[in-house]
Design goal:
The chain is an alpha/beta fold. The chain is built from eleven helices and ten strands. The model has no long low-confidence stretch (mean pLDDT 90).
């Protein structure tokens, strides 16, 4: 049942039309207006599921006046459904500004859940899913892309990325450079579509699989990277902590330098102290 003056955020299929829910269809049929990321794309979907509700455009480049008009309609009691080109709106898709504006006006926003490429990929990846983070699309330029990946090198959670066909090879090459050749990576290509394919292996194996067949580079991709091993993360903290302690020692006692470096970096104090003593002994300063 559709409620007046309500914004519905409706998930649509990411490739297989049969994945749309009965509730989603009923909602799209029952609202007064559908706001779509690409009206041409969504019109084809709505025709297939026999929805004749009026369609209008709302995307990343829509100015604030468009969202204001939607808000006005909602305040007048009309109901609106927000959809994206595929999957769940606002997940690497437009809509955030509209939802925030509507919530600030104390108007109900109701999710109509369904397919999301993130959860679809995670469910079949074979990597840890108890904790994960979504990073969306990385930068197209190598320097910016690898800088972003470097900030995630010691992330313990499983990491999920989206990527396009013309950038997937460069993206995976950057994963190998930053995370190393042995980090476990899953690639889901064309999820739920006719030519869907998956590959799980080391980052170097995944890149080799992609390069072995040009067909593997076609379509839309979800890339999932295993989180950093806890021992490797702690080792990195010790390296950073040691560098900081060495810098601080010129300004304070060894004990204070180690304590402060440990607090700032999360390095283990006893290991830092032992490393500092070893450096002093080897340099003849002890």
């Amino acid at each position: 049942m559709i409620s007046a003056g309500t914004l519905y955020v409706v998930a649509t299929p990411i490739g297989n039309l049969d994945d749309i829910s009965r509730r989603a269809i009923d909602t799209l049929q029952g609202v007064d207006l559908i706001a779509a990321e690409d009206t041409r794309h969504s019109k084809a979907l709505l025709e297939k599921i026999e929805v004749k509700t009026r369609l209008t455009s709302y995307h990343d480049f829509s100015d604030d006046s468009v969202a204001a008009r939607f808000l006005d309609k909602l305040q007048q009691g009309q109901s609106i459904a927000l959809i994206s080109d595929a999957g769940t709106p606002l997940i690497s898709d437009p809509g955030f500004k509209l939802v925030r504006l509507v919530r600030e006006a104390n108007i109900p926003v109701i999710p109509i859940p369904g397919v999301s490429a993130i959860t679809a990929a995670l469910s079949v990846a074979g990597l840890a899913t108890d904790r994960f983070c979504f990073e969306g699309f990385l930068a197209s330029k190598q320097g910016a892309r690898e800088q972003s990946l470097s900030q995630l090198k010691y992330e313990l959670r499983t990491m999920v990325f989206y990527e396009s066909p013309h950038r997937i090879e460069a993206m995976l090459a950057s994963v190998v450079v930053v995370f190393g050749e042995s980090r476990q990576v899953f690639v889901g290509r064309e999820l739920t579509k006719k030519f869907e394919s998956h590959f799980l292996g080391s980052s170097s194996d995944v890149l080799a699989w992609l390069q072995a067949d040009s067909n593997n580079q076609r379509g839309e991709f979800v890339v999932i990277v295993a989180g950093c091993d806890k021992d490797a993360q702690q080792s990195q903290k010790q390296e950073v902590g040691l560098r900081l302690a060495l810098q601080l020692e010129s300004e304070m006692s060894l004990k204070k330098a180690v304590a402060l470096a440990s607090d700032v970096t999360g390095a283990r104090k006893n290991l830092l102290y032992a490393a500092m003593i070893e450096i002093k002994n080897s340099s003849g300063d002890a």
